[in-house]
Design a protein that fits this description.
With about 160 residues, the protein is α+β, with helices and mostly antiparallel strands. It has 2 domains: about 70 residues, Winged helix-like DNA-binding domain superfamily/Winged helix DNA-binding domain (Arc Repressor Mutant, subunit A), CATH 1.10.10.10; about 80 residues, Gyrase A, domain 2. The chain contains 7 helices and 6 strands, in the order αααββααββαββα. The chain has a 4-stranded antiparallel beta sheet with strand order 3-4-6-5. A hairpin with a 5-residue loop joins strand 1 and strand 2. The longest helix has 14 residues. It is elongated and about 55 Å long. It starts with a helix and ends in a 12-residue tail after the last helix.
């Protein structure tokens, strides 16, 4: 297992790996056979997520790769383009994104941190925002606008 984990990290650092299928193929080329479910668990364990690269395409990144100043600026500039809608209900907000973008948006929201944001949970195309009791939706939206251009236009009331 440790060998597989190390090779996954090496591949993600050295190549623009864009899908689990591609990563499974690269592992197989190195003589490592594994299942998609095992690879998915490995990616979660390593906190590997998809981020936009300089070419505007998504690739897997390891957390230390994703937080360079260039990566932060790139993800901020592209985050608004990936959001389909935003709505609030009580203490929760839901951001719908293009497929594969919820993790990037969630990481960006978490990176900027807000004292009234208790946490985020990202799926493939949905990000759940859990807010503290009594938080103003408008105030939280103003916070998001500081680093996600155009998000207000995606608000569904």
């Amino acid at each position: 297992m440790n060998n597989r984990i190390n090779i996954v990290q090496e591949l993600v650092r050295s190549q623009a790996v864009r899908s689990q299928e591609e990563l499974l193929g690269l592992l197989a080329e190195r003589g490592i056979r594994t299942t998609q479910a095992t690879l998915s668990r490995d990616l979660r364990k390593l906190h590997i997520t998809k981020q936009l690269d300089a070419d505007g395409q998504y690739r897997y990144t390891i957390p230390e790769m994703a937080r360079t100043p260039q990566a932060i600026l790139l993800s901020e500039s592209r985050a608004g383009e990936s959001i389909v809608s935003l709505c609030f209900s009580g203490q929760m907000g839901i951001i719908k994104t293009l497929p594969g973008c919820a993790n990037m948006v969630g990481a960006l929201v978490d990176e900027h941190s807000h004292p009234d944001l208790m946490g985020t949970i990202a799926g493939e195309n949905t990000l759940l925002l859990v807010l503290r009791e009594g938080v103003s939706h408008g105030g939280f939206l103003s916070f998001l606008e500081k680093f996600i251009p155009g998000i207000r236009a995606r608000l569904i009331e």
